[in-house]
Amino acid sequence: MKHPERLADSRRWFLWLVRGGMYAAAALTGLLTLFLVAYVLIQGIPNISWEFVSTKPSYLSGHIGILPDILNTVYIVIITLLIVIPLGAGAAVYLSEYAGNKRIVSVIEYAAEALSGIPSIIYGLVGMLMFADTIGTSLMAGGLTLAIMNLPTILRNTQESLKTVPQSYREGAFGLGAGKWRVVRTVVLPGCIDGILTGCILSVGRILGESAALLFTAGFAHALNGFVKGLGSAGATLTVALYVYAKEQGEFGVAFGIAAILLVLALCINLSAGAVTKYFQKKNAQ
After folding, report:
1. Torsions phi, psi of 145, nearest 5?
2. Residue-wise pLDDT tens digits, 56-104
3. Residue 272 and residue 95: Cα distance in Å, rounded?
4. Residue 63 forms beta bridges with which residues?
5. Closest CA to 131 of 65, 165, 201, 83
């Protein structure tokens, strides 16, 4: 039998070892993140200029501008959100507040979880067969594909937000004579709007970062079009343009410039999600 002091020393060394391992893992993760961010910004920022972001490419002069790619990204974010938010939020409200058959609810939730884990390249293949072959390779086809891809995220995030509203709020509203829809509209949704908005903002980040599905459905043209015409035409988003310039044309300076812009946008989106959450938490606390 070991002496109690030796057991205490062994336990102390074990705790120090575990704690040191956790600190080392956290430090390594932080250093890798900082290295990636710093490397992309250092390589990309020198290639960014006003002319770079405000003009379209000219193949005769060899000038490269990414204004069409920026506008295509904005267009596809708008059309995707216009489709996915009503569908996802509406489905979540029905499943959480109206659906009475728990078996159907569990099946739909399981299907949503399964869809969340499907690789985006598969969504691109399905989108190409369903949308691109029907309405043509266009931003609209890409937006419809991304709407299906982001539907499980919006659905599950809204469901979890609805569950945070206390049941006593609903019962109190019913006790005052309010109908079901009035309770949902005036009590439930305002009580969880922060979670819904946060999910929508994070979905924008996923839309901005998607490329595989868009290569199959939206194409990679660098044409400068208006919103309506652009939705019916093929177009490259920033991520697709990054792939084309780096892989197909070997323009790594341009690719790093686009990467720096995408990185800054991703950081802004994450900060916006945190700011929205804190704002509504503070507002609800008051």
Report:
1. -65, -45
2. 887 767 778 888 999 999 999 999 999 999 998 888 888 888 887 788 8
3. 28
4. 58
5. 83
* Spatial separation of the C-alpha atoms in residues 238 and 202, rounded to whole Å: 17
- d(CA 126, CA 217) in angstroms, rounded, equals 9
Q: Is 140 exposed, middle or buried (0-12, 13-18, 19+ CB in 10 A)?
A: buried
What DSSP element (H or E) covers 181?
A: helix 180-183
pTM across the whole model:
0.84
The alpha carbon of 155 is separated from its chain's Cα centroid by a whole number of angstroms, namely 13
Cα–Cα distance, 154 to 141 (Å, whole number): 20
Rounded Cα gap, residues 209 and 270, in angstroms: 13
Q: What angle do CA 18, 23, 27 make, to 5 degrees?
A: 150
- Residues 143-193 pLDDT 10s: 999 999 999 888 888 888 888 888 888 888 888 887 888 888 888 888 788
Whole-number Å distance between alpha carbons of 70 and 53: 8
Q: Which helix (H) or strand (E) holds 56?
A: none
Alpha helices, DSSP H only, in 45-101?
50-54, 67-93
Residues 6 or more apart whose Cβ sits within 8 Å of residue 286:
none
- The predicted-structure confidence for 177-187, as pLDDT tens digits, reads as follows 878 888 888 88
Alpha-carbon span 189 to 179, nearest angstrom: 14
Return the amino acid letter for 204.
V
Sign of the Cα pseudo-torsion (202, 208, 212, 218, in order): positive
Tokens describing residue 14: 């074990």
Q: Residue 212's closest CA among 123, 84, 134?
A: 123
- Residue 251 DSSP SS3: coil
